[in-house]
Predict the structure.
Amino acid sequence: MKTTAKAGMLSLLWVASAMAADVYSVREEVPETGSNIIKATVHWPVPVNKAYAQLNSEEQRIVRDEYERLGVRDEPPYPRDGMAPILADVARIQTRNLGTGLLHLAVRVDARGEPQGVVVLASPGMAIDHAAAFALMHARYKPALCDGAPCAGDFSFRYKLETPRNFLVGWHPVFWLVPQQRD
């Protein structure tokens, strides 16, 4: 009985941790045909619906770690509305199965927060480059801060594109069978 209680408690902890991880996800707008489950499609290391100023110090540190040299009073440019609109576009790109692998783009943002251009640093393919660059160029940004004053800077967008999986790999068909009753 103790083993069952431990297994139940571990399952409960696993579900709670999975639910906490979904806080930083963008979900499908509509569940796939035949399902009522809306899945998380894109994950991000900080809350996706918060602007930079709304992130706590640990979350801001995670964002700042993407940059090599930022002083104490420096801040990187960041989407004004948070990452959710950009990640929703990335989720749509990902569903078209245009490729998998690291996508790393840098958006040049001027001192007013206007995007000026995009450079591709790593990408699985040109179609993905163009689609992601389009999404990044249409976002609104908080400008970078250099010693506390607005300045031009680069917003680094790094994401690992994966092929969406709608099935369980390694799930053996024997598990689909209804157990036979024994007489």
About this structure: Confidence is low (pLDDT under 50) at residues 3-23, 165-178. The helical segments are 2-21, 57-64, 84-95, 126-137. The first strand starts at residue 25 and ends at 27.
